[in-house]
Amino acid sequence: MKILILINDAPYGTEKAYNAFRLAMQIQKDHPENEVRIFLMADAATCALPNQNTPNGYYNIERMLKSVLNKGGQVKICGTCADARGIKNLPLIEGTQLSTMAELTVWTVESDRVINF
Q: Domains, the chain, ranges and CATH?
């Protein structure tokens, strides 16, 4: 099964990105035969910035994102959203890629499940 997870909120401030990555990681753990794809839109584009520094005891989106990638998941970032936030030309977490609405459209129609955070 192909599962697409759309994230729209910033990595911190709400728990939407955190919960989306928690779900992705749990799917990969419990159902490794499924393909997990994450598309970062709007303020979630900043989830792909490296070197996040969070206090001890708090979740770290960068570590969670890398965990998804290390287990074969894919993470793409809306290029338009990244450009609007001035991060399009900044280094991104290795393994993530800038993408387009056209690619999101393909991922959406190919997916068996689409989950929006």
A: 2-116 (3.40.1260.10)
Residue range 2-37, pLDDT digits in tens? 999 999 999 998 899 999 999 999 999 999 999 999
Question: CA-CA distance, 93 to 95, in Å (whole number)?
Answer: 6
- DSSP letters spanning 30-63: H-TTSEEEEEE-GGGGGGG-S-----TTS--HHH
In angstroms, the CA 104 to CA 91 distance is 21
Tell me what percent of the chain is helix, strand and coil, each rounded to the nearest 5: 40, 20, 40
Distance CA 26, CA 32 (A): 9
The token duo for 83 is: 């450009």
Please give the Cα distance from 91 to 54 (Å, whole number).
19
36-93: per-residue pLDDT in tens? Answer: 999 999 999 999 999 988 877 779 999 999 999 999 999 999 999 999 999 999 999 9
Which residue type sits at 38? I
d(CA 44, CA 17): 7
